[in-house]
Amino acid sequence: MRMALLALCIPAVCLAQAPAQPRLSLEVRHHDFGQLAPDATVTHRFKASNTGSAPLTITSLNASCGCTSTVVGKSVLAPGESTELEVTFHAEGSAGPARKSVQVLSDDPLEPVQTLTFEADVRPEVIPSTSLVRFEDLTRKDRRQASVKLASGTSQAIQLADVALSEAPWLGVTTREVGRDLWVDFDLLARRLPPDQLHGTDSVTLQLRNPRPSTVLLKVQWELRAPVTATPARVAWAEPAGRELRAPVLLRSRDHSPFRILAARTSSPLLQVAGIAPGSAARQQVQLVLSATAPAGNYEEKAFLTLDTPGHPEFEFRVAATLR
Description:
elongated, mainly beta, single chain, Immunoglobulin-like, 324 residues, 5% helix
């Protein structure tokens, strides 16, 4: 009988002598932020508790990327005490589905490292089909149209508040709503383009009130067909240094109208334009000359020819050289 009582007492004594230990318990280990705009910053607080029998110390929170910041509400928890682990996600720089993690380090002897995770779907609220519209190889008689689609990245329809266009009497802009999306239609009249320019860029700013107040900037680039062309279009040399280099360039009028070269200049004194004829012709030939004094190295230069052609007052020519 005495031996039986002794056997019953041994487990109780052992239980009483077991060391007190902390225990970290995370109520929820995952959070879904859902769909976010690319510039969104969101925060979630995870609940952490000490379910052990000794004080628990949370030593650190280690995020898997720099887009996540963390804050520990209280780093030392008494048995039965709880706190919040704050996790903030900065969506800027992310696109599409994002899944991140945060390691929670503590002095829990059973699980010293536990992991929190979160996910988000980073999606633009407005998705333009393009931000740059190009009208190229234009003649003064042309009329061109182009459209840009602003697709809604949310369940809400895009609503336009205002349209602002840079001073451009040659460009018409209209908008139309199709379902949740917004279309921007451009109509360019080349005859209204500046008479002394061959190319330019205009901007259109759209103020949106929905899905939320925001701004969308679209650029429109236009380029007229040059009335004078050059063959070759670019000169490139790869030669030993110390000798003069020459390259003939033929200028031709597209409509066979005579033109005259009024002047020439270059981006470097080492580069010259020679052989300019004094009269007018539909075809003009010049020589690009790189001086023999040019030292070894790489060169990217330009030659500029002033013409009497309407709408094309200056012709730009690119010259590259690699001298060994």
